[in-house]
Write a structure and sequence with these properties.
Layout: E1 10-16, H1 29-38, E2 42-47, E3 52-57, H2 63-74, E4 80-84, H3 85-93, E5 105-110, H4 116-121, E6 131-135, E7 138-142, H5 152-160, E8 164-168, H6 169-180
Antiparallel strand pairs: 1-3, 1-4, 2-3, 5-7, 5-8, 6-7
């Protein structure tokens, strides 16, 4: 008799773009958790109100399926960027601004990897004290005046043309800790 393959359960993070920001795309996290449970995911948790979902699954989740389910249930069109717990460990470990003021460090989680030519063309945006580093499907930012004052995130988003959802460094670290536990 052949052995049956056992699917390993993994921890995933679903990072929603643009929910509960400035009163737009209002989405209660308790209802978002319920949706994820109804989709068959386990140990579903959320962190703060900006659409951070930690969950377990033996199946690889698909962003497009999650986006469709959110649109159908809540009438909200949002991008869902997925990462595994181990992906997030790498993001924390690879922070190119470890000695900078953590309140000024942000990570942009991209839905895909930008081409080398797109990344090279971003160099012209290196003006002033704000800094950024593109690493795979993440873009790290050090915003000297904070997110609200810098134009760099919106310029990067327009140039990269890949859905990006931003998280501050404290949220990234907290998500990594929750995903690891």
């Amino acid at each position: 008799m052949g052995e049956r393959a056992t699917l390993q359960t993994r921890v995933y993070l679903g990072l929603l773009r643009g929910v509960n920001v400035g009163g737009n795309n209002r989405l209660p996290m308790s209802e978002l958790r319920s949706l994820f449970v109804s989709l068959g995911f386990e140990n579903v948790r959320t962190l703060i109100q900006s659409g951070n979902v930690i969950f377990q699954s033996s199946q690889v989740p698909m962003s497009s399926s999650l986006e469709s389910a959110i649109a159908e249930r809540f009438g909200i069109s949002t991008d869902v960027v997925l990462r595994t717990a181990s992906d997030l460990e790498v993001v924390v470990h690879d922070n190119p601004f470890p000695t900078g003021d953590a309140a000024r460090v942000y990570v942009g989680f991209m839905a895909g990897r930008p081409s080398t030519s797109v990344v090279s063309a971003l160099d012209e945006l290196r003006v002033g004290a704000d800094e950024f580093v593109v690493s795979g499907t993440e873009i790290y930012l050090y915003l000297s005046t904070g997110m609200g004052q810098s134009k760099l995130p919106s310029h990067l988003t327009r140039r990269i043309k890949i859905p990006i959802t931003m998280r501050n460094w404290n949220t990234v670290k907290e998500l990594a800790e929750l995903a690891a536990s």
